[in-house]
Every structure is written in C-alpha cells, then in structure tokens.
Design a protein that fits this description.
165 residues
Length: 165
C-alpha cells in the first residue's frame, strides 16, 4: 500500500535516462517551454501516454464501444485544445508531448505576449498575477481549455518599464 504521507508519483521515469539522444531532447524541451525540472516533462509524457493507451484500447474494442467511448475521449481532448473537431482515434495516437506542453498556462501566457519569456510567464503565474476568466490560477502546469484561452488576463494594473525616468 505504501505510506499515506508519501503520495504516488504522477510520472514515470524514462527507461534509459542517460542516452545522449534522450538527454538532448529533454534539455531542449525544458528550455523551450521553461519547465522547472525534468519531473514536469515526465509528468506531461506520462499523461500523454495514458491518453494514447486509452485510444489504443478503444481501437481494439468492439465497434459499438469504440464509437461510444471514442466520442467521449475525442470530445475531452477537443475541449483541452489537443485535437480538432473532426478528429479520429488515429489523430490521438499521433499526438506529441509538445502538443500537451503548448496547452499549459505558462506556454499560453508567453505565446500571447503577456510575458517576454516562458520563465517570466512562470514567475507571473506563481506570484499570483494571472487570471483565467475570474479565477486566479497559480499553477504553471494548469492545462487551459479551448474556451478559457481567450479569457487569460493579468490581475491588477500592468506596469510598464519606464525608460530614462
């Protein structure tokens, strides 16, 4: 069972953590998306592998189950902004970890131009300066839904740098 004070990991580590190709890919993704450590990347990879595992299981299921449960999975991923509206289970299998990392609050704040870098976006979020709609969100890993994307804003007055004051 395990100790209740020590929660179960939400990620799984790579099988070959010291291979040069995997190390360079991980470091590139860490720098590009401004992740704090590799555990955040591994968590995104694990979440994506769970979704892809569901899609593979549905492809092997009977046509009735595939149609019913596949629609739920596609609808959920559409609301998250990971797939298009007329997506199929094959499209879910072609998702990459970059697609999931692009939907993080940290990445969207940076891409919208509210922050100059992913690191500044992370700082704004952790300092509780970012609103999603009317709600204050302080987790950079929050997955922003398609309907919430246009409602991202800053809390309070936005201060600009004064040059030559």
């Amino acid at each position: 069972m395990g100790d209740p004070k020590k929660p179960k990991n939400k990620y799984s580590t790579p099988r070959h953590p010291w291979s040069a190709g995997e190390l360079s890919t991980e470091l590139f993704l860490l720098g590009t998306y401004g992740l704090r450590n590799k555990r955040e990347l591994w968590g995104a990879q694990t979440e994506l592998s769970r979704v892809r595992k569901q899609a593979r299981a549905l492809l092997a299921a009977t046509p009735e189950v595939r149609e019913r449960m596949g629609a739920f999975l596609i609808k959920r991923l559409y609301r998250l902004g990971l797939t298009s509206e007329g997506a199929s289970l094959d499209d879910i299998l072609s998702l990459k970890v970059e697609d999931l990392l692009e939907r993080r609050l940290q990445s969207l704040i940076w891409r919208k131009g509210i922050a100059k870098s992913p690191y500044e976006a992370r700082q704004l979020i952790s300092h509780k300066r970012v609103l999603v709609g009317e709600r204050l969100v302080s987790k950079p890993s929050y997955l922003v839904g398609r309907d919430e994307e246009e409602r991202l804003s800053m809390k309070g007055p936005v201060q600009k740098e004064v040059v030559g004051a």
